[in-house]
Amino acid sequence: MNIDTKCLHTGYEPHNGEPRQVPIYQSTTFKYDSSEEMGKLFDLEKSGYFYTRLQNPTNDTVAARIAAMEGGVAGMLTSSGQAANFFAVFNICEAGDHFIASSAIYGGTYNLFGVTMKKMGIECTFVDPQISEEDLQKCFKENTKCVFGETITNPTVSIFDIEKFAKIAHKNGVPLIIDNTFATPINCRPIEWGCDIVTHSTTKYMDGHGVSVGGAIVDSGNFDWSAHAEKFPGLTTPDASYHGITYTEKFGKLAYITKATSQLMRDLGSIQSPQNAFYLNLGLESLAVRMKRHCENALAVAKFLENCEDVAWVKYAGLENDENYALAQKYCPNGTCGVLAFALKGSREKAEKFMDSLKLAIIATHVADARTCLLHPASHTHRQLTDEQLKEAGIDKDLIRFSVGLEDAQDIIADLKQALAASEA
Ligand SMILES: *Cc1c(COP(=O)(O)O)cnc(C)c1O
């Protein structure tokens, strides 16, 4: 099946008389006839449902759909993108371990890795995504357990060189984890380029309508944990909390997701509600169509801004003269996403007047949504940073993140035109 078809059909095959649409299993618990049956579930001897914190049929259906779209063997949903990225790393890193992450990642993830996980005894080295292979190699330590990056960076919209990072990660016997939120599997499937584990904030394009916060993790099943058994004892040695089960022995290619579900979700409880999984699924069904439109609209807006007198620069990897154009052609040949970045000439006051004058596009702490929205990181999400710190994070103080929605492109451009004129006045 082509991915456009997978969006609508994979993961759920109703039988005679069953609902056509994925039903919501709004139930905390599930019924069994005997205590023996129940016992087998608790021992992971049988697969099935017993408590929604661990697994729920609605969630599993939606996770299976996302896994199929990404080309992975198994997936799971989490309550948010933050939980997905935390689980993805924490599933293979513990106190005393180290990992490497691109410095050009979502601010929330940067904070999670650099501050919160540090308090848990897990150290992260941030690297410039432009780093040479030699310099990247130098960042590896005895206790390095994974490498992390973002396909399209938020908010600087650069394209991550997945193959380069996968090659060096694998040379060092560790997996590459990619947050594929902005590209979505419609425009890039990192697993095809050597990535081992994919994460998502499903809150963005996958949901697409700004209705539910959620996350997902997909495992390619390709990383051979047993070949590097000494690095990943959590997967390759008996788990005392499950009567000595060894995940790699018992579950093979499903080891990573089984551990994350039966251990991390059990203990940390960041499950997505079945109701939200249902909303997410509605979003997935139209994802292919929406991404196409988001990209067409964003390209039209980028071209308009590129030719605007008042605009200092525009960053969109779909523009032929963009520094990321070649990488975008390689990893996202059908388009990148609807998010672009630009800056106006002149003062910050002028930029503020411009943003306040927009009528269709709204200022929002949201991105990758059906409705056009924008954010000025220096005065909104990153306002606690000095200009110098912003520079270190690779964020120009004048950068405006513009998330192009599904409206008519000409209406979005007309709104930009009138706001630019108003900011001159
Ligand atoms: C929003 C976002 C996150 C965090 O996701 P939440 O669903 O808000 O927790 C992670 N990564 C990227 C790239 C994001 O845009």
Architecture overview:
The chain has about 425 residues and is an alpha/beta fold. Helices cover about 40% and strands about 15% of the residues. The chain has helices at about 5-10, 35-40, 55-70, 80-90, 105-120, 135-140, 160-170, 185, 235, 245-250, 255-270, 275-285, 285-305, 325-330, 350-355, 385-390, 410-425; strands at about 75-80, 100, 125, 145-150, 175-180, 195-200, 215-220, 310-315, 340-345, 360-365, 375, 400-405. The strands form two sheets. A seven-stranded mixed sheet has the order 1-7-6-5-4-2-3, sandwiched between helices. It has a five-stranded mixed sheet with strand order 8-9-12-11-10. Helix 5 (about 105-120) links the parallel strand 2 and strand 3. Helix 1 runs antiparallel to helix 3 and helix 15 (about 350-355) packs across helix 17 (about 410-425). The structure holds pyridoxal-5'-phosphate. The site of pyridoxal-5'-phosphate (PLP) has 16 residues, from helix 4 and helix 5.
